[in-house]
Amino acid sequence: MVEVLLFHHVQGLTDGVRAFADDLRQSGHTVHTPDLFEGRTFGSLEQGMAYVRETGFDVLGERGAAAVGDLRPELVHVGLSFGVTIAQKLAQTRPGARGALLLHACIPVTEYGESWPESVPVQIHGKEGDEYFDEDLPAARELAASARSAELFLYPGDQHLFTDSSLDAFDAEATELLLARVRTFLAAVG
């Protein structure tokens, strides 16, 4: 079993994000879910992004870095959309990372270094018709092609936060397939 640090999306630490973390816990993993928005959740992506702009990307990034705290370095870093910005940075720059799961987003690897660390396996998941993920798809494909232990999974549909059971975008079938792939990944790095 592994220790997971899961960063929520721009709508906050919703009940659906908590449920996703609980699904991983049921597989025996320890899952930490820091609340970068200090209890705030938002009814739309636009409201969440307004909060992010108001608070500042740097402030939220610092909160994410602080969430590592006294946790051991051998973490699997997981990000959901906005949370990918923090999870990916930690996976690329913090020594000892066991793996990374980038859900609904992917940042160009060069944002945080010259290349993806060879010792850090990574999975990237997104919907092939999602307008937000479509913007990140070139970076996701580049990462998948450049790293030996990288996988990119595309799902049919256009919902962005399809793994959050508390949102209208939830896609139960795609989420179940994603969770099966994630469980396999976590078992392999554990």
Automatic annotation (TrEMBL):
The answer to keyword Ubl conjugation applying to this record is no
Q: Which Gene3D superfamilies match?
A: alpha/beta hydrolase
- Which UniProt key words apply to this protein? Hydrolase
The segment(s) forming the Dienelactone hydrolase domain are 4-188
Show the Pfam families listed in the entry.
Answer: DLH
Q: Name one GO molecular function term.
A: hydrolase activity
- Tell me which domain of life the UniProt entry assigns to the organism this sequence originates from: Bacteria
This chain belongs to the protein called: Dienelactone hydrolase family protein
The record lists the organism as Streptomyces vinaceusdrappus
